[in-house]
Specification:
333 residues; Rossmann fold; six-stranded parallel sheet; binds NADP nicotinamide-adenine-dinucleotide phosphate; binds guanosine-5'-diphosphate-beta-L-fucopyranose; GDP-L-fucose synthase activity; NAD(P)-bd_dom_sf; EC 1.1.1.271; Epimerase_deHydtase; GDP_fucose/colitose_synth
Length: 333
């Protein structure tokens, strides 16, 4: 491999030292999955240190708290997950807060990582940030080709700025900071709050209540929009691979294939089956559908990892439902 600059040589040297990985947003859906995968892979056994953070360790919207956190842990690598996150309906209500909170978090984390000499940062975008008016399938080159869907423009533009910052840190300082672009994620430790969360945990929570009350399961919208879903534990395995092996600045989509795309109605059917719900399913078409589809290509991922296997969707939904029922009292809802 041709090494261009002293910076890259220094970075390569640093990478030979054991990694000390700071995971911002480590107590959320994705963070908990990465923690489970790292433990299963014995990551900490290789002299590595993994530190999983919550907002109680530092409010990353605050630069002084961010700096104090990095001074304390002195990470060599960062997986940056911390964000204000929510489903369609919370995004529609709070676009300004999604913009401000995430822009402050992202700028504080990336600038502090640079100042502290962090070798690599892997940040997190989302397939919902792509242009609303686009050709399909969407790929990594299309992020800035037009405005995002109006329902979540605050979150989308804040996330797009991570890609702009990564390119700027490379151009001006030779930093090899990158990002992944997951599609809709679900799994254990998700946010099951019905008003603020995403569709899958929302339907699981609503079906659980409907079963107990003998009432119908209310699916919001028409049920016709289409989504690709990635199980959090599959995403976690891919995240660890990106940290260790992926060296581009350009982001990479982490998603199941286009052929795995399902309708919201099919999602509801999978939840009904997994929970053994026997009641009526009704569609509240007074509620928004949001983006009709955001079909993303995982061709770039497949070029790197042609043999990676995803957990079958129905199995992942069943495992998530079982987790929710078993942890109902402590789950975020
Ligand atoms: P999540 O379950 O809501 O977890 C968010 C994490 O960020 C929590 O650990 C939370 O800490 C932390 N956090 C929030 N605000 C913070 C602040 N001001 N300072 C410090 N930490 C803060 O989110 P997630 O679903 O795991 O998402 C993780 C990443 O994946 C995010 O960047 C998100 O944009 C991205 N993503 C998610 C999806 C999805 O469908 N879920 C899809 C694509 C991309 P507390 O636990 O203390 O609140
Ligand atoms: O996961 P979700 O809230 O967000 O899914 P998006 C919204 C779709 O599911 C809409 C339907 O078509 C809703 O009408 N739906 C049906 C429900 N029942 C429910 C329910 O009980 N709860 C919810 N939430 N939806 C988000 C972006 O878009 O994707 C975020 O807004 C984020 O920024 C996330 O990036 C990954 O998939 O539409």
């Amino acid at each position: 491999m041709h090494v261009d600059t002293v910076t890259e040589i220094a970075q390569m040297e640093t990478q030979k030292a054991p990694m000390r990985v700071l995971v911002t947003g480590g107590t959320g859906l994705v963070g908990r999955a990465i923690e489970q995968v790292v433990q299963a892979q014995g990551g900490c056994g290789k002299g590595e240190q993994w530190i999983f953070l919550s907002s109680k360790d530092a409010d990353l919207r605050d630069l002084a708290q961010t700096r104090a956190l990095f001074e304390k842990h002195r990470p060599t690598h960062v997986i940056h997950l911390a964000a204000m996150v929510g489903g369609l309906f919370r995004n529609m209500r709070e676009n300004l807060d999604f913009w401000r909170s995430n822009v402050h978090i992202n700028d504080n984390v990336l600038q502090t990582a640079h100042e502290m000499g962090v070798v690599k940062v892997v940040s997190c975008l989302s397939t919902c940030i792509f242009p609303d008016k686009t050709t399909y399938p969407i790929d990594e080159t299309m992020i800035h080709n037009g405005p995002p869907h109006n329902s979540n423009f605050g979150y989308s533009y804040a996330k797009r700025m991570i890609d702009v910052q990564n390119r700027a840190y490379f151009q001006q300082h030779g930093r090899r900071y990158t990002a992944v672009i997951p599609t809709n994620v679900f799994g254990p430790h998700d946010n099951f709050n019905i008003e603020d969360g995403h569709v899958l945990p929302g339907l699981i929570h609503k079906a659980y209540i409907a079963h107990k009350e003998g009432s119908p399961l209310q699916v919001w919208g028409t049920g016709t929009p289409r989504r690709q879903f990635i199980y959090s534990l599959d995403l976690a395995r891919l995240f660890v691979w990106v940290l260790r092996e992926y060296n581009e600045i350009d982001p990479i989509i982490l998603s199941v294939g286009e052929e795995e795309e399902v309708s919201i109605k099919e999602v509801a059917d999978s939840v009904v089956e997994a929970l053994g719900f026997k009641g009526q399913v009704v569609f509240d078409t007074s509620k928004a559908d949001g983006q009709f589809k955001k079909t993303a290509s995982n061709a770039k991922l497949r070029r790197h990892l042609p043999d990676f296997t995803f957990t079958p969707f129905s199995q992942a939904v069943k495992e998530t439902c079982d987790w929710f029922v078993a942890n109902y009292d402590t789950a975020r809802k």
